[in-house]
Design goal:
Oligomer: single chain
Bound molecules: zinc ion
Order of helices and strands: HEEEEEEHEEHH
Number of domains: 2
Pfam families: YceD
Protein name: Metal-binding protein
Radius of gyration: 26 Å
InterPro entries: YceD
Distance between the termini: 53 Å
């Protein structure tokens, strides 16, 4: 109902004067450019949409907890510390829902405009500082998304699903079996059992 909320130019410009209200943005003026100056940062920031892979993702607006140390160095600002981020997904083996919190280390140098580092590195190698604010969101996104597993598992020893009935093996009794009634499968099993020492025909389960 936009009519009930007429445009208030004052509200917008007030927000412009206080960009530090965005918890992903750090005001570099708090740190200053004197080498050795240091600031500790302990804050939470909401995850934007789209941080994830096929089977695991960070829920939109989930709280990312940042514990960072920002240190002024000759070439720029060194950011070190760690972050905690909640993730949800499903097990690649048994499809069971997964909920977890990842704790990840962060270490990144942001180069000042005009520094030797800026002049001797590519922009995709070393992050740049532009203006008064350091945007921590791209750093958090890269750190988090690059650490997400392609094949997340509900537990390291998850046995997956029974190939015959599709039930979760970990939920089934240890003696769960199915009668092998098709003689073609029995013949195939015999052939594999009688080919000793052939590479590539190991009966060890595939593991990535
Ligand atoms: Zn599983
Ligand atoms: Zn089964």
């Amino acid at each position: 109902m936009p009519a009930a909320f007429p445009n208030r130019p004052g509200a917008q410009s007030r927000e412009d004067r206080r960009p530090a209200a965005n918890p992903w943005k750090y005001d570099l003026r708090e740190l200053g450019r004197r080498a050795g100056a240091m600031q500790e940062l302990d804050r939470t920031a909401p995850a934007p949409a789209g941080w994830g892979l096929e089977l695991i993702r960070v829920p939109e607006k989930a709280e990312v907890h940042l514990r960072l140390r920002l240190e002024s160095v000759m070439e720029g600002v060194l950011v070190t510390g760690d972050l905690d981020v909640p993730v949800v997904g499903s097990c690649a083996r048994c499809l069971e829902p997964i909920e977890d919190t990842l704790s990840l280390d962060v270490q990144e140098l942001y180069a000042y405009a005009g520094s030797t580092t800026e002049a001797t590195s590519e922009e995709d190698e070393v992050r740049r500082l532009e203006g008064d604010f350091l945007d921590l969101e791209p750093l958090a996104r890269d750190t988090i998304v690059l650490s997400l597993p392609l094949s997340p598992v509900c537990s390291e020893d998850c046995a997956g699903l029974c190939v015959d009935c599709g039930q979760r093996i970990d939920d089934l009794p240890a003696d769960h079996t199915h009668e092998v009634t098709d003689p073609r499968w029995a013949a195939l099993a015999d052939r594999f059992a009688s080919s000793p020492g052939t590479p590539g025909e190991s009966t060890t389960p595939e593991e990535n």
